[in-house]
Design a protein that fits this description.
Chain lengths: 392, 97
């Protein structure tokens, strides 16, 4: 049993990285992730970890150095946010395509313009097709737990893919919460020794990474990459089961909250799920059968499992903290993909909330639930996609 | 059933065979061809140093003719060549002439 502490999300994730003690970390500061890597670099300067820290001139270089270090045969981690993730974009696809299990906490923040440092999911949603596994965290505890599990998931011999561990900027990264830490030895045993696959530093067996592959085999390599993603789900569940034995904390592909007998439900990611659960509770007290589904694993997206969990509902609202301008919100699109296979499809609405860190307040969830009650009764949807929480 | 090709690929498109790029003869990309004029050559080996591939063959410290299997005709060797008394030892000519 580890200790119980009062820490911020950044502090908790930095602690998880200290406990894992990766070989190499290349990072560049960006609000609100700066504090995470700053804390981790203190561990390096204080001799608490053996990690080789590479200070680079941009996030593009940070991810490039991580790719090089991972191909060389190291266990590698970095962290970023927002514009930093956007600048890494080109290299993200290379990390995934080369099958390099780099672990990257991403502190979710809005993208420019206009310039904004606060939390929304525009950054990681923009990277959803990069081939990285994505886990979303509601709290500092979940971010800490997900970060530790991410090493086991990404480094699994059947997977070998990079993982983003997402938490909401400021709301989680800079807020102090109660977090239970595992013992250093427990984390060390849980993640285990890093096993290299085709390391470049094995100079007796020279090899090449990143070759030119044109029309003859590129299509086949992408098919193989897709296949790996189909195996991630089982590994995530297997790692979660082991983690539960160790910590007592249960994780799945998503969290279903009061959903089994619900008639209406909100689907929502990360910290806003906490607020929504409170509102669900108050509606339950009034006798309204409300529930919630909070995806944890967004890439790969567990379509069948989500569909099974939502199939009995009379109306669903999907709340997105990111927009696809000219399209539906990214989470809504995935839920549509899940619901597509159902026979009697429940009516669905998409509500965009909390962009650029706009507070998501209980009254927003209440309005959405009230609308769902009406939709469940009438079966009629007025507007599929709409912004909520707008100022008058 | 035959195993599909995509299942036989090395993860992450890593190439495990060293030096396999020698199999890819890039000389076919060439539109301009360097010609070595031995009488103007002072054996400074600038062409060998500057060649971005390995298309200038050196044996026993002496420059020999080009390896046209890999020369893409970039012309760097011809540009760098100091020649002898104002006469270049490497000139670029249109391929196929």
């Amino acid at each position: 049993m580890g200790k119980i502490v009062a820490v911020t999300g950044n502090e908790a994730v930095a602690e998880s990285l200290r406990q894992v003690n990766p070989d190499v970390c290349a990072a560049y500061p960006i609000t609100p992730a700066t504090d995470l890597m700053q804390r981790f670099s203190s561990f390096i300067s204080d001799g608490k970890v053996d990690t080789e820290m590479v200070l680079v001139e941009s996030e593009h270089s940070a991810m490039s150095a991580c790719i090089g270090a991972a191909a060389a045969g190291g266990r590698v981690a970095t962290a970023t946010s927002s514009q930093g993730l956007a600048l890494m974009w080109e290299m993200l696809f290379i990390a995934a395509g080369d099958r390099l299990p780099i672990i990257m906490p991403v502190v979710n923040r809005a993208l420019s313009a206009p310039l904004n440092i606060h939390g929304d999911h525009s950054d990681t949603m923009g990277a959803r097709d990069s081939g990285w596994i994505q886990l979303y965290s509601e709290t500092a505890q979940e971010a800490y737990d997900n970060a530790i599990q991410a090493f086991r998931i990404g480094e699994h011999p059947d997977i070998r893919l990079p993982v983003m561990v997402c938490m909401d900027g400021f709301i989680v990264s800079h807020s102090i919460e109660r977090v239970e830490y595992l013992e250093d030895s427990e984390v060390k045993n849980f993640v285990g020794e890093y096993k290299t696959v085709n390391p470049l530093l094995d100079i007796d067996n020279p090899k090449s990474y990143g070759p030119l592959i044109l029309t003859d085999l590129y299509h086949e390599y992408k098919r193989a990459q897709h296949e790996v993603m189909t195996k991630v789900k089982n590994v995530v569940l297997e790692v979660a089961a082991d983690f539960e034995k160790l910590s007592g904390r249960k994780y799945g592909l998503f969290e279903a909250y009061r959903l089994d007998d619900a008639e209406i439900a909100i689907v929502i990611l990360s910290s806003a799920a906490g607020t929504t659960k409170d509102v669900v509770d108050s509606y339950r007290d009034k006798g309204i059968k409300a529930g919630l589904l909070k995806p944890r694993m967004f890439r790969p997206f567990p379509y069948e499992e989500v569909a099974a969990a939502l199939s009995h509902l009379k109306a669903i609202a999907v709340l997105d903290r990111a927009d696809s301008f000219g399209g539906y919100g990214p989470l809504f699109s995935e839920i549509c993909g899940a619901v597509m296979s159902m026979d009697g499809k429940p009516p669905m609405i998409n509500r965009i909330y909390g962009l650029g860190g706009r507070d998501y307040m209980p009254d927003q969830a209440e309005k959405v639930l009230d609308e769902l009650i009406e939709i469940a009764e009438t079966g009629k949807v007025h507007t599929i996609k709409e912004y909520i929480g707008l100022r008058e | 059933m035959k195993e599909p090709l995509w299942k036989k690929l090395t993860p992450g498109s890593v190439i495990l065979e060293p030096g396999s790029s020698a199999k890819f003869k890039t000389g076919s990309w060439r539109s301009m061809r360097p010609r070595w004029i031995e009488e103007n050559c002072i054996q400074c080996l600038f062409c060998w140093i500057y060649c971005p591939d390995m298309s200038v063959i050196v044996e026993d410290g002496k420059r020999k003719d080009f390896n046209y299997d890999y020369c893409k005709g970039c012309g760097i060797c011809a540009l760098e060549c100091p020649g002898k008394k104002g006469n270049k030892a490497i000139v670029m000519e249109k391929e196929g002439n």
